[in-house]
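Re: weekly structure request thread

Next one in the queue (153 aa):
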Amino acid sequence: MTTPDAQATIEVRAPAERVYDLVSDLPALAGVAAEFAKGHWLDDVTTARVGARFKGVNVNGPRKWATVSTVTDARPERFAFDVTFKGIPVARWQYDIEPTASGCRVTETTWDRRPAWIRPITALGTGVSDRTVHNQRNIEQTLATLKAAAERA
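Done, posted below.
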């Protein structure tokens, strides 16, 4: 895989299974993610599994947009999905969860997969001109919120 566009890691004093449950459950993920506001499974799927699709709604200030994602990894050490907008590749998001002696280490990573021609259009729609910087800040915020939620549970 190519070099990520944004990535951060955090130590969490909670079991890896609890963290996996938070990132692979759409309402729980919406509760901790910086930009992902809500989502629902498509095609009569009710839980995360490889190949499952979900519609996600993202929010940045007054702007709101929907995407469709396909789960590519759904196992305790990794939850990942590829995001599209109207069938056009947008991004890959990945949560790697590694058990440690005191809990787990979580790494959130994203790869921008938008074709060059659509980037100005998505910048207008999302209000984000520098997606790499924006995603880095969002990942750091998401991981801090995830840590607090997992340690509080």
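Residues 131-152 form the longest helix (22 residues). The first strand starts at residue 6 and ends at 12.
Next request, please.
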